[in-house]
Automatic annotation (TrEMBL):
Source superkingdom: Bacteria
Pfam families: PIN_3
Domain named PIN: residues: 7-114
The protein's name: Putative toxin-antitoxin system toxin component, PIN family
InterPro entries: PIN-like_dom_sf, PIN_dom, PIN_toxin-like
Organism phylogeny: Bacteria, Pseudomonadati, Pseudomonadota, Gammaproteobacteria, Lysobacterales
Length: 146
């Protein structure tokens, strides 16, 4: 059996999915639960998500923030990412998402970040994954499960 396509979500995409319930991401968690899609992350990305979930602007209490983080851990496969030399993202904080995508052999990295989106052509050509906005996540699925 062939492995399902793998996506990497940046921190804001995780927030869109877990906190804001962005309709553009409707069905994503279900696709993971149905094993038609796989999400990948690493300890650095989870630590960043844990930190961001505590931002005052989100107005989440500790219980709610912990529940959102637990859901991310449940949904995503946490992988080890070896040290690697990749093209540098203009925002150094986002470099880890490129590294996770390469290590996970991801189909796509989901983001709204302009700097990451600007790297899509090169990463696709050189590393085999797309960098897409949340609205395009279904494009990573096989045609019969979209």
């Amino acid at each position: 059996m062939e492995a399902p396509p793998t996506l990497v979500l940046d921190t804001n995409a995780w927030l869109d999915l877990l906190v804001f319930r962005d309709p553009l991401l409707d069905g994503l968690a279900g696709a993971v639960d149905d094993a038609t899609l796989r999400l990948a992350t690493d300890p650095r990305a989870l630590a960043e998500l844990a930190r961001v979930l505590r931002y005052d602007a989100l107005r989440l209490d500790e219980v709610c923030a912990a529940a959102h983080l637990a859901e991310a851990v449940r949904l995503a496969h946490t992988i080890d990412v070896p040290s690697m030399q990749l093209p540098r993202c203009p925002d150094a904080d986002d470099q880890m998402f490129l590294e996770i995508a390469v290590a996970a052999r991801a189909t796509a990295l989901v983001t709204r970040d302009a700097a990451l989106l600007g790297m899509s052509r090169r990463m696709g050509r050189d590393y085999g994954f797309a960098i897409i906005e949340p609205a395009g996540w279904r494009s990573a699925l096989a045609p019969d499960v979209r």
